[in-house]
Structures are given as C-alpha cells and as structure tokens.
Amino acid sequence: MKVLFLLCLVAAGALAQFSSTGQQGIVDVHNKLRSSIAKGTYVAKGTTQKSGANIRKIKWDATVATSAQNYANTCPTGHSQGSGYGENLYWSWTSGTPSALDSYGPAASASWEKEFQDYGWTSNTLDSATFNSGIGHATQMAWANTYAIGCGVKNCGKDASMSNMVKIAVVCQYKTPGNYMGQAIYQQGATCSACPSGTSCESSSGLCV
Q: Where does the UniProt annotation place the signal sequence (predicted)?
C-alpha cells in the first residue's frame, strides 16, 4: 500500500472523530516529547537539549477539538484564519481504504516531532532562521506555555491530483498558541523550577500540571 504525507503549520461544530484512544495517543506523543525536554534528556539530531523549567503538561480540550474537527471537515488545503489557536496540519494519502482514522493522530504528531531529528534544534529563541529551518511543527509541540490540544481528522476521499489515492487530513489546534517570533520556546533551567502560577511539578514527568 502506497502512503504519502505532507505537513503544514501556522505561526502564532462537529464532534471529534478521534476516539478516546486516538485522543490519548496524540496527547501521549506530545507529552513524551515535552517530558524529555523538561528533564534534559531530549536529543535533537545528536544534540542534547537543556532541561526545561516551565514546560506545562498538555491535556485534551473538547472545545479546541471541536474547532479542529470543524476545520478538518472542510478538507483544508491551508491554515484556518482567526481561530485564536496554534495549528499544525498533516495530510496523508493512501492507495488503500482506511478502516479507522485513530492512528493518523499519533502518526501526525510523530511526524511533527521528527523535524527536530531531521533538521536539528540550534536555538531556543524562535527567530526567523529557526522557524524557517523546518521545525515549526515541532516547536509548537514543545512550546512551554501551551497546555491544551484538540485535533480533528477527516477522510477526504479520492484525490484526483494524487492519482486518486485517498486523502486523510489531520488538524491539531493548540491553546495557548506557540511560535511567537522572538520568544523563547521554553525557559531553560532546572526541571520544574519555574512552573507557572497555579501549577505544580509532576515529578514523574518533570512537567507543570
């Protein structure tokens, strides 16, 4: 079975079609990345990143998911406008007939995270060079102040422009948005040493909850 995928990102109602299992898979991929950064164990293309002092734990948000699903239902070709959320997009084409869509959420998340492995992560400040290096999906995943995610998925049917392969669209939206130019992706320092007001350290993950 032939599979192709394409990614798209943005700088800072229908019911969700991801089941609870699919939702948890997406959250887990995000928090695994965030936890490893927080603990100072994350290696991006051979370089270990400094530990994070203020990285929040991501949770699923039904309201954000409804927004993401509504947009996914349009089979988008580019980013939404004015949602107020951060946004990562993913498209996959397959010659088969997908029997379930849950796997596409974690697959999209893993593809976004892989940008750190493919292109490296040389600056903790999001400047134009960093954003344009190809890691913008991954930096949104890692953005310390983001604390909620919601995603939608849509089987868009056969795509004539891609030899009639079936197109699947995934939209993930983030609250609060990340990827603000000129800002730090996270605060470097001892794990959990600068958790935002109203949060505390979860020692097992090193994230602020």
A: 1-16
Contact 169, 75 (CB under 8 A): yes
Interacting residues of 73 by C-beta distance below 8 A, sequence separation 6+: 14, 152, 154
Is residue 93 a contact partner of residue 166, using CB atoms and an 8 Å limit?
yes
Tokens of 127: 């400047």
Q: What does the radius of gyration of the chain's CA atoms come to, in whole angstroms?
A: 17
CA angle in degrees (0–180, nearest 5) for 138-96-89: 20
Please tell me the distance from the alpha carbon of residue 192 to that of residue 209, in angstroms, as a whole number: 10
Q: Hey, what domains does the chain have and what are their CATH numbers?
A: 3-208 (3.40.33.10)
Residue labelled with tokens 């609060």 = 176
Report pLDDT for 147: 99
CA pair distance 54, 56, nearest whole angstrom? 6
Cα distance between residue 6 and residue 23, in whole Å:
21
